[in-house]
């Protein structure tokens, strides 16, 4: 438990000041970074043709988000299909097949990084640096911008938040009851978060990883003679490249896509125990910092305590159950579970990583999840189904706000109070949108899983039994949760998996970001009701426990049949075999 406690202490200790700094960045406060980033920001605004002082309604914000994703996605898709003719390809990597290129583009565009390819052999240096790393920087910042705009909407827009803070309201931005509210400027939010927050942090993490031995070069990898001269392979090429910058952003940006096929199980990508600590800390750092951003950004310190406390309680429960299952359960020592298991860093390190990478929408691995004990793999699925224990950069808090609004609505019905969040009523139009979002997950994940399992010719699983069900269910759950990890016994590099997962990736990303923004935009137009003795206070331990109960009911229980047919049935099978003995 030493490493687990160390990671949590470091994440909290670093996340607290980082979250307060991020709140200042997203509020647009003046700081010493104005001299460093200000000129570059002004050039970007000029190139985009946007006025940084001009705000947007939620519709304008969502439109800008969609346009930026469409343009960037098309450019990267073309790059993957033409990489053999482009520079920075010293190893002569061929073009990607169009369906693999499409899945890869959609996967990284949705901040999922689900990989149906092996990076060191199917992507050129240019594709890795521009297409992959470029999207890994941009997409988490886009998610952060959306959740910041949603928070502004829930508190009445930028003008009302400025009035609450005692600041001067920009001319033309005054609050008008019933009108569309200014939730910020998308281009400004993305630019400021990238230049003032994400890139400096990635630079620091990249230097730390390079110091630990992660490759950082543009030269082609060397060719060596294998130690065993009797093998058929007489020469082996060691793939190198600018690996450390990609590993830095894959961990910090809740991305997870590895330079190498085995991800951070590969010694080149994760060479030492200290690099392992740096990488697992990177998974948790920014999502935790965002929880600490909520209070200073909204001027409600107790809101941070509620969000952080709820997430931390769920995280500790999930991590503890995973640790018990992997190290102490009756199936933990089964020899069949050792295939693909990480032995270089130990059980605790591997289990901690598997818990954190699925509690966050990260998806990187330092041990193959296909080889986890059945209940550990089941816990990883539960983490992704909840998708808000810490969640990804921005999108995790966005999903948490969905659960928060639904919990307020249900608590209001149970207590006979009008459902209100921050003084604004949650009414039928908002609840319908939120219900649509909650129903989308089982419809998509269970629907695609059922179709895939019904046709063995397209399934591609390596196990015909309960674990085979888990492999398929995990893949679609991971895609919808924008996580990206997988049970790697699955043969997923096919037309069916590429195209079906592309659909699931998009459905799991865009509605989950845009619908809460729309709900916040609708609520921002409403009159604020003054607090009274009948007001439901959300910043209390009682409500936090109610919120956790709502999350469990809306996610875990509705997927219980799938979990029973997969990891739970597999656990009982192994337990029965162990009880009978040889």
Automatic annotation (TrEMBL):
It is found in: Cell membrane. It is a multi-pass membrane protein. Keywords: Cell membrane, Ion transport, Membrane, Potassium, Potassium transport, Transmembrane, Transmembrane helix, Transport. The chain crosses the membrane at residues 6-23, 61-80, 129-151, 197-214, 277-298, 305-324, 388-413, 433-455, 495-522, 543-564. The keyword Metal-binding does not apply. Belongs to the KdpA family. Part of the high-affinity ATP-driven potassium transport (or Kdp) system, which catalyzes the hydrolysis of ATP coupled with the electrogenic transport of potassium into the cytoplasm. This subunit binds the extracellular potassium ions and delivers the ions to the membrane domain of KdpB through an intramembrane tunnel. The system is composed of three essential subunits: KdpA, KdpB and KdpC. NCBIfam families: kdpA (TIGR00680). This is Potassium-transporting ATPase potassium-binding subunit.
